[in-house]
Amino acid sequence: MKGCRVKIREKSFGEISVIQNLEFEIVTDAFISMVGPSGAGKSTLLNILSGLDTDFDGSLEWVGGGPGCVSYVFQDPRLMPWLTVRENVELVMSDAKKERAWIDHLLQMVELYDRSEAFPGQLSGGMQRRVALARAMAIKPDILLLDEPLSSLDAPTAASLREMVLELWRNHSSAVMLVTHNLNEALELADQVLFLSKGPASIIHEEVVQPSRIDPAVERDSDQLTRALLQRHPEILSGIAALDGRKYKSANKSK
Predict the structure, then answer these.
(1) pTM of the predicted model as reported, rounded to 2 decimal places
(2) Integer Cα distance of 255 and 251 in angstroms
């Protein structure tokens, strides 16, 4: 089993501390959601996990043979407008011709095989995000990072893409790390939800949701789960959790 132990003692931008004393572990087949107030450093954390940001005090320790392969789906699909759907997926591959069957499989999974020769400008926003998902899965990552990829979509399209993410996760054994502001979405999809404090961010609560949705027969009532969680932690979305009836912020709260 491959995994990554994340230890960030501090991440700063100049004199502004963004993350402090944040630790967790990502293992094979994990589905983790991360929720926190705006500006809490969620996207910064994904940039660190992806290797785009290496300027931090801490470590990413790979276990089970590493370093692992990481894919990143940004808030914006970031497709190349002059490339077709297929070419955008092939872009990240070292030998696309050899992997043609794999690309065909991914395009079928995201229901875009028949649009493989279309250009991004000919696709809806939801279709573009599906291309981004297929491209991210093309390199068969150990960890798939998702930075609010469904936030601007209408409800039916977002629901369809959530099911697509689950199907990709179930079929290809990638761990998934999803950043979202949508608590229902986090509880619907993930087996572990990490809640961040206000900056400098640290983890103030971990919600484990079982049984795992890696079993396609498992369904969840996300509305009920959300109500129950907010009853126990009414200010959790503001970066404040309750412990034994007392409020507390991260030990790193601003002075």
Answers:
(1) 0.89
(2) 11
What span, in angstroms and rounded, lies between the C-alpha atoms of 143 and 25? 12
Q: What is the CATH number of the domain that holds 249?
A: 3.40.50.300
pLDDT recorded at residue 66: 65
**pLDDT at 254 > cutoff 70:** no
- 83 within a domain of the structure (yes/no): no
Name the strands in the sheet holding 70-73, side by side, starting at the edge strand that comes first in the sequence.
70-73, 143-147, 175-179, 31-35, 192-196, 203-208
Judge whether 29 lies within some domain: yes
Q: Is residue 81 part of a domain?
A: no
Domain count for the chain, please give it: 1
Distance CA 84, CA 86 (A): 5
Alpha-helix residue ranges (DSSP H) falling in 64-192: 85-90, 100-109, 125-138, 155-172, 183-189
Domain that holds residue 212: 1-69+177-255
Task: Report pLDDT for 251.
Answer: 39
pLDDT for res 1 = 62
- Residue whose pair of structure tokens reads 């926003």 in the numeric block: 125
Query: Is residue 112 left, alpha or beta, with left meaning phi > 0 and alpha meaning psi from -120 to 50?
Result: alpha
Determine, yes or no, domain membership for 143. Answer: no
Over the stretch 237-252, which tens digit does the pLDDT of each residue have? 999 887 534 344 433 4
User: Between residues 252 and 40, which one has the greater pLDDT?
Assistant: 40
- CB-based contacts of 14: which residues, under 8 Å, 6+ apart? none
CA distance 36 to 110: 29
